[in-house]
From TrEMBL:
Entry's Gene Ontology molecular function annotations: nucleobase transmembrane transporter activity
Residue ranges, annotated region (Disordered): 10-29
Record keyword Cytoplasm present: no
GO CC term (a single one): plasma membrane
Protein name: NCS1 family nucleobase:cation symporter-1
Length: 509
């Protein structure tokens, strides 16, 4: 976007090499809803450290660095930023625990657990929405990592500099060197993904800690150059006081939640592998509030030291590393951040669409095929052109929140408020009209209507931002608006009126 690691590391070493997870495909399950990747797991073996490492990979990236640093430049005092960070990340922690529980208890991924709320066929709606969003951000994150690789290549081989200029050697808006870097990372990510979830687990177990090592080394280098007295936690020249700081702090809280909204929604894709829900909660506590705060403080200390050392504020860690005189340090630092960005990309934007697209047609689209569809799609949309347009980025972030919020709200309302934490697992995989989740021809109108209401209401301020007074501010809270309306509308529709759900007998797992 940080963060007591000793106990987490100790716990992780006890489960350093869990056996590869396997799925149980019941012969009675309908093939139109089932494959080995979507079926309930027979063995759930991930420990505290594995989930903790997942969050480290999610937080420790170039995007996470820049975002955390930006909170200290909003015109808030350091204590105000600290409060906003704590509140924001605690909200994320609570929501992640909520969304983790149904998948951990049933052993199924996000799109499958969505069948309980949306219907066995209706679940494709949230799956496709989340999958398409992930494709766009997969491409953008790959581009960010490739830009870091460009810095390393030009630094090592100055003769490549002309090939990094789009105007001289460019195609479809990307330089020749940019294409080489992008495609290289595109293939590397696909290779890690293709080896399966165990390889992904091992990869993310390494990524998060590796970035911490480089971050501490970079911070130590800058302290040695500038001295301890040069550290300044206030990166802004303007500070809000009194009540004027409240809206800015609320905006910072919303930014933290929005940043994690994607992986938060499909966190069940990973919590399903955990051996217990208590392990998930301990890992989330370490990986979110603790880890996020430590990382954020490390970011602001490092960024503040760039002022006395380089004469300007640098919020991009790769750009900071590039200023170091030692070639080895530049290569080590930049490549570490590249690896970290690959880590967050795989966990946040590769695994999710793999499950989501596989859910659409399990017999024709395997988990690996779903991931490859996402990879190809991320290349076709030429993400560097999206990233180079600030207006598109602005609308993408808020639109993401507007659609993800209602999906989250409906899922939480169904599992906790309507179903009372009970799931008929086998009925998630049946097309029988007597199945619990058949609803109306495989679709639950209550969930679809609630999602539509939440998304439309949340998108209104996004589309009218700058045209109607107050909408610019409201657009920042699109996730909260969509989530609240999705939850409330589903709770209302599912418990009364023509779409009221009938009482059923559950087989809990």
């Amino acid at each position: 976007m940080t963060e007591i690691a000793a106990s987490a590391l100790a716990t992780g070493r006890q489960a350093a090499a869990p056996a590869p997870p396997s799925s149980a495909t019941n012969p009675a399950y309908d093939p139109r809803l089932t494959n080995e990747d979507l079926a309930p797991l027979e063995k759930q073996s991930w420990g505290v450290y594995n989930i903790f490492a997942f969050w480290m990979s999610d937080v420790h990236s170039v995007g996470g660095y820049v975002t955390a640093g930006s909170l200290f430049a909003l015109g808030l005092a350091s204590w105000q930023v600290l409060i906003a960070l704590v509140v924001g990340i605690v909200i994320v922690n609570v929501f992640c625990n909520l969304v983790a529980k149904p998948s951990q208890r049933t052993g199924v991924p996000y799109p499958v657990i969505c069948r309980s709320a949306f219907g066995v066929l209706g679940a494709n709606i949230p799956a496709v929405i989340r999958g398409l969003i992930a494709v766009a951000w997969y491409g953008i994150q790959t581009f960010l990592a490739s830009a870091a690789l460009d810095v390393v290549l030009v630094k090592l081989f100055p003769g490549l500099a002309p090939y990094a200029v789009v105007g001289d050697y460019g195609f479809l808006g990307l330089s020749a060197l940019g294409w080489v870097s992008y495609l290289t990372l595109w293939v590397l990510q696909a290779a890690v993904f293709w080896r399966g979830m165990e390889s992904i687990r091992k990869f993310i177990d390494f990524c998060g800690p590796a970035v911490y090592v480089v971050m501490f080394l970079l911070c130590g280098y800058l302290i040695a150059k500038a001295g301890w007295g040069a550290i300044d936690l206030n990166l802004s020249t303007v500070t809000h006081h009194g009540w004027s700081a409240v809206p800015v702090m609320l905006g910072a809280i919303a930014l933290v939640v929005s940043y994690f909204s994607g992986p938060m929604l499909n966190f069940g894709d990973f919590s399903r592998y955990a051996r217990s829900f208590s392990a998930v909660k301990r890992a989330n506590l370490l990986g979110l509030p603790v880890n996020f705060l430590v990382f954020s403080l490390l970011v602001v200390v490092t960024a503040s030291l760039t002022m006395p050392v380089y004469g300007e504020l640098i919020t991009d860690p790769v750009a900071t590393v590039a200023r170091i005189d030692n070639t080895f340090a530049i290569v080590l630092g930049a490549l570490t951040f590249v690896v970290a960005t690959i880590g967050i990309n795989i966990v946040a934007n590769f695994v999710s669409p793999a499950f989501d697209f596989s859910n659409v047609n399990p017999q024709k689209i395997s988990w690996r095929a779903g991931g490859m569809i996402a990879a190809v799609g991320s290349l076709v949309i030429t993400p560097w052109n999206l990233y180079n347009n600030p207006d598109v980025i602005h609308y993408t972030l808020e639109t993401l929140g507007a659609f993800i919020g209602p999906l989250f709200g409906v899922l939480i309302a169904d599992y906790y408020l309507v179903r009372k934490q009970r799931v008929a697992v086998d009925d998630l995989f049946t097309m029988s009209e007597t199945g619990t989740y058949w609803y109306r021809k495989g679709y639950n109108p209550a969930a679809i209507i609630a999602t539509a209401i939440g998304a439309v209401a949340a998108m209104f301020p996004v589309l009218t931002s700058g045209k109607i007074t107050g909408m610019y501010t409201a657009a920042q809270y699109s996730w909260f608006i969509g989530c609240a309306l999705g939850l409330l509308c589903y709770r209302l529709l599912a418990t009364r009126g023509r779409f009221r759900l009938s009482a059923v007998h559950y087989e809990t797992r």
